[in-house]
Fold this protein.
Amino acid sequence: MASHAIQLVLRFGALTDQQKVSMNMVRAWAATQCGGPLEKFEYDLGEMGAEDVEIAVEHCGVCHSDLAMVDSEWFPATYPLVPGHEVVGTIVAVGAQTKGRKVGQRVGLGWHSASCTHCQYCLGGEQNLCRKSQPTIVGRHGGFAERVRAHWTWSVPLPEALDPGAAGPLMCGGGTAFLPFVIHDIKPTDRVGVVGIGGLGHLAVKFARAWGCEVTAFTSTASKREEALLLGAHHTISSVDVKELKSIAGTLDFLLVTVGASLEWDALIATLAPKGRLHMVGVVTEAMKVRTSGLLSWQRSISASPTPSPVTLAKMLEFSARHGIAPQVEHFPMSRVNEALDHLRAGKARYRVVLDADFSPAG
């Protein structure tokens, strides 16, 4: 689209208003009602922001958060809704005040597309905690589309060593699994447990192994034990068998919970060593029932974290490139987006789904 516009300018001079409007029209796939199938959808991107970049989408991961938004699982969503917040693409336009980004640069875009840039959290490099941050698929349209826009700070350059076709899930799932290792100063000598070997958990296992930790994978599915070992875990254990959990009581320094299911929380907490931490990155919608005695007696703690800041996303991408870490993905053309969503809903994804943009050049 951008190259077509340049050719028009070279051949005919300044663009007409009608040509400018057509340049801003974007083809996408949108949910038009709660839980409904995605349909073809076009919308106007509007005027380019002075600090924005426009990204031509090449690939976009499909995350459970996309399903949650389509299904209004967390709160009533606004429709039509274009999901997609694990974008990999090439910058095709930049605003007049954009810094450090240029046309032709390949970048990734995750859960957030903008933040206020002036609050204490933005100035402190924790833009993900900004109260005015703008999620990519809440109040704006996401990456199941030809193009998407974002503030330049949230478009993170992709290291050349990473495969663009597989890197999309790193922008949300990867960043979410990586952030706890940074904010809690996990050490290579730590014994780390990962609960859930799925979209988040399989990446957390890879990160923990590359970090140098002794890794125990927790799963409720017997068939995933061998898979967890292949991913890098040193040990596996049931996440639901209380008797088996007792066999490793008091041994773990850090336990990362990547699933959204309600579990035997007291039994999991009991696997922690003194001063151990249970950390949540999975969205558990039900109340957690926990006995404080298991925390108080051994000075254990419970914490949680969201997706990270642009700086931490960049560090995660560099770490992944250095250690050859990539999500295990299954590809679908974007035109088969509903098939891809059904595949994820059914729990069949191993372990992340990526849509490859296949919009025809002519429309």
DSSP finds 13 helices and 17 strands in the chain.
